[in-house]
Each structure stands twice: as structure tokens, then as C-alpha cells.
Design brief:
Shape: globular
Radius of gyration: 15 Å
Number of strands: 8
Distance between the termini: 18 Å
Strand content: 15-25%
Amino acid sequence: MPQKFAVGLFIALSSVALVACTSTTQDTTANGIDFTEVEATLAGEPVGYTCDTLLPDYVLEVFDEGWTADPSFTPAPGSSAQIAVDIQGIACAHTGSDGQTLVVTLALPTDDSRAALIEELDAHSEQVPDSGWHPTFFTPGQLNAFTQDGFWLSFTDPDYDHVEDFDLATSLVGRMLPAS
């Protein structure tokens, strides 16, 4: 990874970490869409990433050496984190020295599952035009985005009240994924 990109990545993730949430368990009602209704119909493929490759500790440590992976994180039933894990994706939580937790999920749903997720998101959140993702949905506390390559990303933070609050996080994580 070129050094300039790595430094920029460190700075970008550091800013994301500043506004992370405070819970180690994702609450589906307060922090986003409850996917319980479609959960049983979803399937996916392994994403080929771990939390260490999607959100490397060395990136978080540039901001604050206290940021570490949160091994106590347990996704709430019906949450985007739980759905991602259920369909062979990952749910990553990193906790700062001040107790804040940042949760990012990544999954690679099948085409039918992607359509079901998009339908559920479209019914319960606002579609974001011109986001650069294909498509993107926002509800206060959560942003869900899809890449052209089929990845589904979910960013959850109850402190994020505006879609713009997620711009840095989506840009940062998007750079860790293969170019579409």
C-alpha cells in the first residue's frame, strides 16, 4: 500500500473513530433496520475479509493506541451485524479507550438475497441518490450500501443523524475493497 494512501487512510479512520457509538451490542430498534422479517430467506458467500483486513488495528492506533478489536461484541438478533454473520460475512467492532464502539459489517449476499435486502431497506429507510454506491440507504443511526461487486456494507452508529455523517466511513472502508 503506498505510504501516502496509508497515512490518509489512518487519518480518515481516526476521524470515524471519534464519532463511534457506545454500545458493544447493536440494538436493532435504536440503531437501524430490523431484518428479522427477511432473515430466514437470506444467503451469501464468504467475503474473503476478516475484521483485521477490513479495519486493521494499525489504522485505528494512529488515532489512539487504545482502539482495539472488541472481542465481546455480540450482534443483536435481526441486526445488520447478525445478518451479515449469518450469511458468511463479518461484523467488526472496535472499542476506544473511552468506551466508544464502531461497528462495520460486510457481506456478499446472493443475488436473491441482495434483492430482498434492498427491498427491505427501501421499505424502511431513505434511498440516498448520488452516493457513489449501488444503491445506498439511510436511516438515523445506520447507513447500508451496496457495491457493484455485490458487497453489502452496513455502518451503525446511533450518533449519526445525517447521511453525511457516514461519508468518511464509507469512503474509508470502500478503499479497502477491490475496485469495481
